Amino acid sequence: MEGVRTKKGHRVAIFGAAGHTGRFVVAELLRRGLTPIAIGRDAARLALLKLADSRVASVDDPGSLDRALEGAAAVINCAGPFLETAEAVAGAAIRAGIPYLDVTAEQASALALFDRFDADARRGGIILIPAMSFYGGLADLLVTSATGDWDSVDTIEIGIALDSWHPTQGTRITGARNTAPRLAIEQGSLVPITLPAATRTWNFPPPFARQTMVELPFSEVVLISRHLRTETLHTYLSQNALNDVRDPATPAPTPVDASGRSAQRFRVEAVVTRGTDRRRVAAQGQDIYAFSAPLICEAVERILDGRFEGVGVLAPGAAFDAADFLRALTPDLTVELARA
Questions:
Q1: Above 50 in pLDDT, residue 3?
Q2: pTM score > 0.90 for this model?
Q3: Domain residue spans in the chain?
Q4: What is the DSSP string of 66-120?
Q5: Which top CATH class is 2-133+292-322?
């Protein structure tokens, strides 16, 4: 990739570097020739990463965050729950004058970043991107690539199929603390979904096939709402995955290869309509946690290369050429686009 050639040596800070997703991000930055700065609260856990530059900092101590970001060209926040970390780390990024990205699936966290930091980021001439992850950024990029030349759409439906979901400890903690109402889009506005959550079936290709789906919107709703006008938007997750994550006996992910990925497979499909026109886009890959690493690191590389548009708090689909971005994720992602 161009970024590997032109941006070698740039230092990128990772807050939460010793966590499950953080370790994937550290490895991906190294693969791309970027230099990670590992940041976290626990010096002993950071030491296990065996990096040349590790720094202890806490969201409760703004001064420690400021010191931790010294010399960094950008910061990636991998430490959830993001309702507890995003504002502190984003604020430190703005004080340092560097880009901020995170991997939140929490709608309330993404909304707070847009509402509270956009003006400051614009004044500082920097870019902040929340939810640059499997839940959030991927669906936003897929929908943006499908809409293409359309400046508005009538409906968007997103279906997420997982063959299993073995949650990390961080996912469980976030789920327990995230009590905010889940939001969809109806009549062009963000509204809480109707409870009990709606169910439907979705016909995926093998190995997923016909799945029972439950309405469960994530941060992609917030991202899409910020740059694409749509009358309705609903997101559905396969029932089996929801059952897994709700079961306290479901174990954490188990590595099956040298990179640490689990065997989990995923497929995301989005169907977009305008009038009688209908477009469908799909993507599939392995391990939702591991996949967030190439996704967010590709975004960091493009920002450091200047291959983005705009400043302030932006959705990925507003900041990047969505179709080109998705192509760059090969072989981590397989994308299919049909405009029928």
A1: no
A2: yes
A3: 2-133+292-322, 134-288+334-339
A4: HHHTTT-SEEEE--S-HHHHHHHHHHHHHHHT--EEE----HHHHHHHHHHHHHH
A5: alpha beta
